[in-house]
Structure formats: structure tokens, C-alpha cells
């Protein structure tokens, strides 16, 4: 009989569980020439707005703020809105309510969604170089891609340390992976609807 030992890091387990869907999202964004010009970036920004609108309530949830120190300061929706305003773009219209609305939430599922949202900050370092080529910066048009003052790696390590420290019943743990995969599927659906 072979005994499987789970990685003690929830963040590493989520990375392994979402590898395929994460790669698909990255590939879709880059193949769509999202950073070749401002028009392509505007489509990418629409995806960012809709995703961050979906999850904004998670950053305001007291139960999650208690588990993840500094969570409220990580919220990026206002930065995405400022980027849209910089480029004289309207917020994308949608008839769908945000996926999370501040009502009762499932903590394990929410942690999976936040893992995806916060992980995107690591990829933002590469994207910042691309948007600089089309005249955008941390202070104009690409504010939401700007790194945290302590740097993206330290910002990510602080988040994953807190994420790994959250105590969840073993029976509830699979919902973190389900939440993370659902988040990547949501981003992919937004890409398919606004970029492709």
C-alpha cells in the first residue's frame, strides 16, 4: 500500500491543482495580443474589471480579514477603475451581479478565489514590462499592475503564509481547490467573452 503525503502548504497544493487552468488563462491572454496596443490592453482591462468586481466583496468580508491580515489593502478594483478612467474607457456593462456580494460566504471556497486573485500579482511584474512598451505605467493606465511597496515576491509570501495558516476541517479542504479552479474558469470565460 502506498501512502500519499499531502504537501503541508495549501498554496503549493492549489498551484498543483490549478496548473492546467492557470496555463490556459496565461496562454489565452498572450495569444490575444493583449499588450500590443492600447486597444488590446483595453480588452484585457475589461476582463480585469469584471473579475475584480466579482471578488471585491471578499476583501471586505470581516471573517476573511481576520484570517488574512492586510486583506483589505490588497483589493485592486479601485485601481482597475482608475486605469479605465486614465484611458477614457467606460466600465464594461454587465447584467450579471458580482459573484460575491457580501452575503454569507463559504470560507474555503473564498480562499481558493483569493489565491487566484493574489497570485496574479506575481504575473503582473511581466505584464508591467509589456504595458510600458505602449506608454502605460504604475501611475497611468496600469495602476493595478503596480507592485506592492515591499515587492511582489514578499507580498505573495505574506499572503501564502497567512493562507497556509488558516485552519480548515479536512472535509472542507477540497473546496479551496474547487474555488481556485472556479476562479480560473471565470477568468477564462471573461477572456473568451471580451478578448477572443
TrEMBL record:
<dbReference type="InterPro" id="IPR016053">
    <property type="entry name" value="Haem_Oase-like"/>
</dbReference>
<dbReference type="InterPro" id="IPR016084">
    <property type="entry name" value="Haem_Oase-like_multi-hlx"/>
</dbReference>
<dbReference type="Pfam" id="PF01126">
    <property type="entry name" value="Heme_oxygenase"/>
</dbReference>
<dbReference type="GO" id="GO:0006788">
    <property type="term" value="P:heme oxidation"/>
</dbReference>
<protein>
    <submittedName>
        <fullName>Biliverdin-producing heme oxygenase</fullName>
    </submittedName>
</protein>
<dbReference type="GO" id="GO:0004392">
    <property type="term" value="F:heme oxygenase (decyclizing) activity"/>
</dbReference>
